[in-house]
Design goal:
Largest sheet: 8 strands, parallel, barrel
Distance between the termini: 23 Å
Order of helices and strands: HEHEHHEHEHEHHEHEHEHH
């Protein structure tokens, strides 16, 4: 999916919501555990219920790899189901890959060639040759580079300053813009950072940002939009637990839909301000 297609979907649906499919078998409704593939059964129900209100889905690979081959099979079935039934959805594999060039090349082949997802989260720590393989030869695919996360450990590296007062996350964004552009690179920026979006926009004024942390983690959608939104939105805001675990009864899908709808309505109000 290219940038124009993504922006079109955002304004058509009046939503920039991404639903995070972080499936923990200890948290899904207990009756689903009797299913042959409880992870996929859960995902299918969540997708069917929330698709009208979102523009993206983000399965986190850790939650599938934890269950071995069965988990990977559920991930593959989930991607295939989205591709077949909801081709307008932007599909993000949250895998945080990034290694030496040959290894990154294989990761790119896995996610863009084999699974055919639209985007992949990538860790930038190893530099150019660990990121460029994801951008080389994959038109319409996106690297989503970790920039400024909302976990407490982000202070260990991301917010450290050099002698000129430039913080590491700023250096990462500036350098990465030599490798990719607004058509194939986004950045992860945690919603709990609030006014830090102003600083992000100084170094990435028109890039799309993937924003986790709204909902269960306490981030403010209004603050994200106030400081981070651009004329063509420029945001994909993720909510995982607040949507998919809204209810643990047989009504879990309807509850997820209601949680997604409420966020979509807030997003529509923000888009109307543009």
């Amino acid at each position: 999916m290219n940038r124009d297609q993504l922006v079109t979907e955002i304004f058509r649906k009046k939503s920039f919501l991404c639903v995070g499919l972080d499936v923990d078998l200890n948290k899904i409704p207990e009756f689903l555990l009797k299913e042959e593939d409880p992870i996929f059964t859960f995902n299918k129900a969540i997708i069917d219920a929330t698709a009208p209100y979102c523009v993206a889905y983000k399965p986190n690979l850790a939650f599938y790899e934890a269950y071995g081959l069965k988990g990977i099979a559920a991930f593959e079935k989930t991607i295939a189901y989205l591709k077949e039934n909801y081709p307008e959805q932007f599909v993000i594999a949250d895998a945080k890959r990034g290694d030496i060039g040959n290894t990154s090349k294989m990761y790119a082949k896995t996610f863009f060639g084999e699974y055919d997802v639209d985007a992949l989260t990538v860790a930038p720590y190893m530099g150019e040759d660990s990121v460029v393989p994801f951008l080389d030869g994959y038109d319409g695919k996106w690297v989503i580079l970790l920039a400024l996360t909302s976990n407490k450990g982000s202070f260990d590296f991301q917010l450290t300053e050099d002698n000129n007062g430039e913080r590491l996350f700023e250096k990462v964004i500036k350098k990465s813009r030599q490798w990719g552009d607004d058509e194939n690179m986004m950045y992860v920026v945690g919603a709990t950072r609030g006014e830090m979006f102003t600083d992000i926009r100084k170094v990435a004024p028109t890039s799309f940002l993937l924003v986790p942390g709204v909902g269960a983690q306490g981030g403010s959608l209004q603050d994200v939009c106030k400081y981070g939104m651009t004329k063509d939105c420029g945001l994909i805001v993720n909510s995982s637990r607040g949507i998919i675990y809204a209810d643990k009864t047989e009504n879990f899908a309807q509850a997820a839909a209601e949680s997604a709808r409420k966020l979509q309505e807030e997003m529509a109000a923000e888009l109307d301000k543009l």
